[in-house]
Amino acid sequence: MYSDKDNGNLTIAEKQNSASVKQEKWVYSWNPRDQMTKAEKFTGTSDTYAGKVEYRYCLSCDSALSDRIEYSPTVSTTITSWKRYEYDGLNLLRVDERYDTAGGAIDANDPWRTLEVNTHSPGLVGNLVGKRAYRHTDNDATPNATYDYVYVYDAVGNLYLVLNDEGGEEYAFSQDAWGNELSIGSFYGTSWSSARTYGVSEHQTGKWLDPFTGLYFFHHRWYESGLGRWVSREPSSSDGPNLYISVYNSPPNGFDQNGAQSNMEDPYFLWPEETDRTICVIRLFRHYYRLMKEANFIGADKYFHCMAHCESKKQCGAGDIARDYGRKREVIDSWLNWFRGKPNDSESDIAANDLGLACPSDKECKDQCDSVRPKGLPGKY
User: Where are the alpha helices (H) located in 199-318, listed in sequence order?
Assistant: First the structure.
């Protein structure tokens, strides 16, 4: 059950079981600029308090989110988490958190420590290229662990792969088209809660998911993936007669970069058959990446690059998509090599990719890629 106030912002959401018995109730508060300022959770038929989170926004920063304050699920006045966000337009640059030096409750006088610093690249749907995440387990500002990540997106900007600073796979995510996590027992992947513990909270079109409310922050609006709808109406009223639906109820075929308007005419636009080809390419790329890691053979990367592109062309009929993904991956690798101070060999990798894509229809991929196959590589590869 949902209740909207006159200007179209969701104020109450109740979730019921199959017997129509209320299990959960959410109450949302809004400021005059139609920004959510508080989300409160209640459980059971008697509306037992179960926690809340408050949001503050920066008026001088295009009204970007500035603070997120979460309270105890049992004591409504006790702060358990206070985060500060620094944005540049749509790009989240940095996240800090307050901490209590004695390990007690958080308050406005507590100092700050850094949780993550992000790197962005113009032109990517998800924008976020990578981040450095800091994990804290002590009551001081010194991180107990530091993690460097590089993000890899699908064609509409959903985060599906996170690489570590050595270029190896750290996390792989599975989700449905609306941004809901899929079971890792049925599909490949890492549990989202596990990755969040180590600083990765982005999923649907690269946006971060609030772990308390389950809503995605899209800058102008909050999105509920369970229903595939926004919790407030589209600001410009230009997305058709239903101002709460996401990308015209067709998320595989477009994206909404900032919660203000759906984009169905971007170069990343995919018809359903294109989505099938893209999934086929992703699976082959992952297959050959794992073979390359399994082989662990010096100089074999060009061969596996060639094979992945060749088989994508032959098995998926998607040489164009493979070329696009391959070149995006080289952009990421270039960034990684620069970050690690290593030489950049992207041009030779692209040449290996193109060699695979040039394979004639009557030739086997192994034969086509033989010129970049290192001597001594086991025959099973």
Answer: 272-295, 301-316
Please give the average per-residue pLDDT across 54-76, as a whole number.
92
- Going from the C-alpha of 317 to that of each of 166, 280, 289, the distances in angstroms are 31, 9, 20
Rounded Cα–Cα distance for residues 112 and 251 (Å) = 38
115 and 171 in a single domain? The answer is yes
d(CA 172, CA 191): 9
pTM of the model: 0.70
Contacts of 23 by beta carbon, 8 Å cutoff, 6+ apart = 15, 16, 17, 43, 44
Buried (b) or exposed (e) across 62-98, using 16+ Cβ within 10 A? ebbbbebbbbebeeeeebebbbbbbbeebbbeebbbb
Residues 246 and 322 in one domain: no
Q: Last residue of some domain: 196, 219, 253?
A: 253
In this predicted structure, the answer to whether residue 344 has a pLDDT above a threshold of 70 is no
Q: Which of 280, 244, 153, 264 is nearest to 205 (CA)?
A: 153
Residue 359: give its domain's CATH number.
1.10.132.110
**pLDDT greater at residue 335 or residue 371:** 371
Q: Does any domain span residue 5?
A: no
Together in a domain, 288 and 200? no
Could you list the residue range(s) of the whole structural domain that residue 302 is in?
Answer: 272-372
Cα separation, 254 vs 328, whole angstroms:
19
Give the pLDDT band of residue 258 (cuts 50, 70, 90): confident
Q: Which of 220, 253, 286 is the last residue of a domain?
A: 253
The answer to whether 28 touches 13, Cβ cutoff 8 Å, is yes
Question: Are 276 and 127 part of one and the same domain?
Answer: no
If asked whether residues 224 and 285 sit together in one domain, one would say no
Single out the residue of 237, 207, 200, 236 nearest to residue 222, CA to CA.
207
Kindly list the distances between the CA atom of residue 226 and the CA atoms of 177, 181, 223, 252, 357, in Å, as whole numbers in the listed order. 11, 10, 9, 16, 40
> For the chain, what is the domain count?
2
Distance CA 51, CA 39 (A): 9
* Alpha-carbon span 358 to 367, nearest angstrom: 12
SS3 93: strand
